[in-house]
Design a protein that fits this description.
alpha/beta; Nucleotidyltransferase, domain 5; DNA polymerase, domain 1; 3 domains; six-stranded mixed sheet; 15 helices; about 55% helix
Length: about 375
């Protein structure tokens, strides 16, 4: 499997010129984010017309030609499960590639299975077994090992072959526009994907409204600190320490100092900032406190969700796809709330082809629940 190493601006421009002549370019990335808040791009792989290129972002000082390629709507960018790829590329290039053909989405819409892994797809379509042994290796090291190079090369080499197989199927089934539309939804959702990451403190489910207010304030503060220092959130303060603070709700340095089990360096470094956050929460009125998290679904609503899921299975069979790709499981209650008149922001991916073929039909079915109450 041949490949070419690209580590200078002139060679990058040549590769981009080749890519701009193609109908599609297969892309993949390798990155690390264990010690940083922002992912560190270590390698960008391209397959252009069957030729594989490994781009070294550690040596390329001017990635601007890639911006032109990313913004060229006549060249489709092929990825597999690309959410993290988009994030790391946006950080490096400053723009997002489009249009996107995500082979994981394509396989789901073509009825091959839901969220198939890359290795599974390669096995099914190329009869090749891949070994993902280098996934967590040090991609920032130079030179890369032979195993790393083989791993990185095969990731886009077979992706190009998979794309050619899937685009033929999707054109025959008139689903290519669906796949590209879902790729566009990924782009539009990128800025929202991590919108609530800072609230994902494990174990924080049973909190009072005041504690929830403290959770929001503490987690927002932690997010800003992590971004400013480009450090993982847990390196600022881990989830266990956050929950301990919410339990005790310290509003003075003295009360903070008396909390057992809280690391001394947190008290010393951030004591004043943390106690100020909790004092501000105490000053809020009852109306200003956030609502409690919703209760589990009622028996009636669980039955409605079950009925909608059965209906989606019928729609999926009719469309020749898998039901899980049509609407996310967590969004059934949201759909019912919207049909009940609750003002909620509906997900981006409900637009386009899915609105007419799935969402509107589910809304009509949901209206029957209301009529029969």
């Amino acid at each position: 499997m041949d490949w070419q190493w690209i580590d200078n601006n002139a060679s990058l421009r040549e590769v981009v010129t080749l890519a701009s002549r193609e109908h599609a370019v297969a892309m993949d990335t390798e990155f690390l984010r264990e010690r940083t808040f922002y992912p560190q791009l270590a390698l960008l792989q391209l397959c252009v017309g069957g030729n594989t290129f490994l781009l070294d972002p550690l040596r390329i000082s001017d990635p601007s030609p890639l911006r032109d390629l990313f913004e060229d709507v006549d060249t489709i960018k092929v990825f597999h499960s690309c959410a993290e790829d988009l994030e790391v590329l946006n950080n490096w290039i400053g723009t997002l590639p489009e249009p996107i053909f995500d082979t994981q989405i394509a396989a789901s819409l073509l009825g091959m299975g839901f969220m198939l892994s890359y290795s599974k797809l390669v096995s099914e379509l190329c009869s090749v077994e891949l070994y993902k042994t280098e996934t967590r290796s040090n991609w920032l090291q130079r030179p890369l090992t032979n195993a790393q190079v083989k791993y990185a090369t095969q990731d886009v080499y077979y992706l190009d072959i998979i794309w050619r197989n899937l685009i033929e199927k999707s054109d025959l089934d008139s689903k290519t526009d669906w796949i590209l539309s879902d790729g566009q939804a990924l782009i539009e959702d990128l800025n929202k994907v991590h919108e609530y990451d800072h609230l994902r403190i494990s174990g924080g489910r049973k909190l009072s409204r005041l504690q929830l207010c403290g959770l929001y304030a503490l987690s927002r503060w932690r997010e800003l600190q992590a971004k400013e220092r480009d450090l993982p959130r847990r390196w600022i303060i881990d989830d266990k320490a956050c929950l301990r603070l919410l339990e005790m709700f310290p509003c003075t340095r003295h009360s903070l100092g008396n909390i057992k089990g809280l690391p001394a360096d947190i008290k010393k470094k951030f004591g004043g900032e943390i106690t100020d956050l909790f004092k501000q929460c105490l000053a809020k009125t009852e109306l200003e406190l956030p609502p409690l998290k919703p209760d589990p679904l009622s028996k009636e609503k669980r039955g409605q969700v079950k009925s909608l899921k059965s209906f989606v299975q019928e729609i999926a069979l009719e469309l020749g796809t898998v039901p899980e790709i049509l609407i996310r499981s967590r969004d059934y209650p949201l759909l019912l709330d919207i049909c009940n008149g609750k003002k909620e922001r509906f997900p981006n991916y409900w637009n386009g082809w899915r609105d007419r073929l799935v969402i509107q039909r589910l809304k009509e079915r949901s209206s029957h629940f209301l009529q029969n109450k």
